[in-house]
Amino acid sequence: MVNYGGDEVAATVIDIGTATLRAGYAGDDTPKAVIPTYYGYTTTEGSNGDGDVTMGEAEGENAPPKSASKVNMFVGNYGPSVWRHGMEITHPVKNSMIEDFAAIPALITHAFRDVMRCEISDHPVLVTEPAWNTTANRERMAEIMFEEFNVPAFYIANTGVLNAFAAGKGSALVIDIGRSTASVTPVVDGFVLRKGLTHSGLPQLVEANAQHILTNPGANRPGIQLLPHQLISSKQAVEPGAAPRFTLREDRATGTTDTWRNWYESREVEDWVQSVGGVLDQGWNEQAAVTRGARHYEFPTGYNYYFGPERFNIGEQFFTHSASLASKNQNLPLPLPTLISTSLAACDQDLRQVLVGNVVLTGGGSLFSGLSDRLANELQRNFPHVKIHAPGNPSERRFGAWLGGSILASLGSFQQLWVSKEEWQEHGKAIISQRSPSPAL
Amino acid sequence: MAGPSASDVRAALSLGEPSSSTPPHASATPLARKPSLRKPEGMPRELYQLIGPSAPTLIEQFAKPQLKQKPNLGSGGGAGQDGNAVAGSSKVKWEWRTFKNGARSDGLKLSHWVKADTDPNADYPFAKYNISTNSYVYSQDEYTRLLEDKEWTKEETDYLFELAREYDGRFYVIGDRYDFPNGSHRSLEDLKDRYYSVCRKLIRNRPWGGDEASKNQLLSSFQFDKDREVTRKQYVASLMNRTPEQIAEEESLYIELKRLEQRERRFKKDRDELLRTMLGIESGLADIPDEDGLSASASNNNLSISLSTSGLSIDTSNKKRKKGNGDVETPISATPSSSSVIQLSQPQKKQQSAKSAAYDAAQCIVRTDVPSNASSNKSAHTPVTLRSFKIPFIKSSNQQKVTQLLAELKISNQRLVMPTRDNLAKLEGLMEAANALIDTKKLVDKVEMDLNVARARLGMAVEGGEADAAPAGGSASASGAGGQAGVETQTPGAMDVDEDAEGEQEDPVDASGRGQSVVSTRSTRSRKQARRSMSISSVDTAATGAGNKKRKR
């Protein structure tokens, strides 16, 4: 194995995204712990009846901003998704950037202690960051790791670079479509070119658009109620397109908070998008959309319907914005082709050919049905020699950055790059930027 | 070393070697039996291989089926019950050990799995990859002496060199990160230009330990031409910014050009082919010189009874012509028909120095030049031959008669006593003359015959008076048809005196049955004549010939 340059030192990798936090051992091919970054909290006394609920982390420092005498946090896979009386949902990551560091220790602790069942202070930790992360943010992360978790060594690496590494490339144009942000990152020799870095909140627009399509009456159907299944006590099977027959749980009518409901509704929408949504590979064409056939989907209320051409409308938002939408909204997030061409235009002439020949498509959002084909077609129209690397294995795309981190942290030649606790104590925050060059603007 | 290999993993798990998973009997029996496996005397080897006991399939077939071997896990069970533990595989102990990384400046102790028997004080194996490029550093003194530049301050130059060191000279990254406070905008070329020029100056002005060559080599590695680079980038940009219409236009122009070239090539090929068919392969057309290779290819011909193609070369001189496959023309193989050309042009001699020419003459050396285009391919190569192999043979239809004629003269054309060059040339001349004589004789005979027939008919007409006018007209039309056929068989472009003679000859009215035979002989002759005429004929014939051919396609 010396040939592969690997040397495992039991390092761990943490990749914090908008939707999920991924954590696991370096050298593995998938993260051991994948937990939602969203978490619920109650400011009243939480009911302790549920056995599988993760509780605790109510220390004052970690408490959410709401000032309360006693705060219960619910994190993990059985945290926000379980209905609790008066539970609010929030999340610390906005636009791929950690905005609320208070909850981060709780999330990491949950991932390590409750899912991986290991002690984080035993392991060197590699944490990922988006390319547009600020210096203050990365230093805060280092501080949390060294001061709170007492890790022996720490390193912070760029998701764009790690995605390129996961694809086995040193230079690549990384197109990362996550839950909230789509970004295009040119990576050359393992360095991000910050001038060519572009990102936009495109996936949020896609989701909002999908929600708009669902809740508003369509051609042959009424608007759809997005009620979470936790609020429904019983339902009856109905014909496709017929009005749903269900009864709500009256006992939960009062305790449901708006944030929890919104979060679950967006989950519904996400679910629907992932099940029926798609994009045509040759651009929008009503005829082609009709010929692709309808797809069936049933909502928690029991309402079910065959979604026809409208399901292809969802994916179209990734590539073009309709004129009406654009006129109404001045600062729409840039669509993918614009992001890519802007990014390439900012790069050196000589690099464009290299980058276009090494396009890496990654991120959970890129698993959207038909997206990679459409993207390939769009790119081929503009660049003759484009080559897209899009792993067929879904977990390689969902955990691309984590996988890259896993590879990096298990390399023998990487072991000299760790920022050790000793160095942290000696040099302070400056060592972080010095050791892992930041493309931060 | 640092990581486990497949055999290490096997060893750690106490699994046997891969081969040990096969049933022990199967592997043991052939080994045991091996000494007795000797081929019995007198049995053919092939047969023994078929039926002999060595056939491995038999053993596998009759071996008792066995369950998969139990993996030998755990440290205690070194030898299994059936004693099939692999001999020689000793347990390797691994341990989780902290190590010190030499590439690190601090005392961070990380741990990894290593074999217990490795040296705990050994260097970390990956520390050796911690290499950094040596970058140039300059002192304040050197800067003021050598590196002053009105565009750059020392601070900014320092900043540039710091970046170059940090990013190991990756200029794309340096250009991306370059952000000197209050500095003007620097393009990638500006940065490269400054960096490389500073390096060059430092190399040039510092004492150099090695030799000049290595210094120059080092200098050339720091060569950078900013203007050229900028122009190149602009060109690349203009290439990239082409609109689809421009690209399409360029494509179509390119295709058009290719098509024109192809047409030109085909045209030339066709004409060459045509000329060769008309002049005959023995005419040496393959050596038709192109305008720039005139002397070279003329020298090819200087031994042949020089078929000077100067006339042809003039008409083709405005077109570049690819040479044919370079049939080496031997003097004797020149056809009789080509002799008529000799008078028309001067044989071209290769320029030789007077001295060497004199020497050659004295020593009876005749130099045959290798064709200039004689490549290494086999077909172009003429091996050494005896002159007697080059005795000409009669190639015309009246071969029999020529042989007869030669026999009358008591000359054997099969074997010459002394087949020297001159003799062969003379023999050929003789054959040619004989051929011509026979041709003439034939012609004379026929004309006489025709005359006789005509005379006889005239007599009959005088006798029969006007009553016979109608049948005579019928036969005349028949002969007319025959004449037409005769004309058609002629190759196009053959315009010669002979043709006129033949035309005259056709005029006489002929009996239709006879006319047929006349046509057949005439057709062969006319082809030959056309060949002969070709050399005389001017450009027009060639052009029309090629044109005809082309139209046919």
TrEMBL record, chain A:
One of the record's GO molecular function terms: transferase activity
PROSITE patterns in alphabetical order: ACTINS_ACT_LIKE
Pfam families: Actin (PF00022)
InterPro entries reported for this sequence: Actin, Actin/actin-like_CS, ATPase_NBD
Region of interest (Disordered), residue spans: 46-66
UniProt entry tagged with the keyword Ribonucleoprotein: no
CDD domains in alphabetical order: ASKHA_NBD_Arp4_ACTL6-like
Top-rank taxon, per record: Eukaryota
Keywords of this entry: Transferase
PANTHER family reported in the protein's UniProt record: ACTIN
Family that this chain belongs to: Belongs to the actin family.
Protein name listed in UniProt: NuA4 histone acetyltransferase subunit
Organism per entry: Steccherinum ochraceum
Automatic annotation (TrEMBL), chain B:
GO MF term list: transcription corepressor activity
Keyword Repressor set for record: no
Organism: Steccherinum ochraceum
Transmembrane intervals: none
Sorted UniProt keywords: Chromatin regulator, Nucleus, Transcription, Transcription regulation
A biological-process GO annotation: DNA repair
Protein family according to the UniProt entry: Belongs to the SWC4 family.
SMART domains: SANT (SM00717)
GO cellular component terms, A-Z: NuA4 histone acetyltransferase complex; Swr1 complex
Source superkingdom: Eukaryota
Protein known as: SWR1-complex protein 4
UniProt xrefs under Pfam families: SANT_DAMP1_like (PF16282)
Myb-like domain ranges (all copies): 148-201
Predominant location: nucleus
Listed Polar residues bias regions: 332-344, 532-541
Subcellular localization: Nucleus
Region of interest (Disordered), residue spans: 1-47, 307-355, 466-553
Biased amino acid composition, Low complexity: 18-30, 307-316, 345-355, 467-479
Composition skew (Acidic residues), residue ranges: 496-509
Function recorded in the entry: Component of the SWR1 complex which mediates the ATP-dependent exchange of histone H2A for the H2A variant HZT1 leading to transcriptional regulation of selected genes by chromatin remodeling. Component of the NuA4 histone acetyltransferase complex which is involved in transcriptional activation of selected genes principally by acetylation of nucleosomal histone H4 and H2A. The NuA4 complex is also involved in DNA repair.
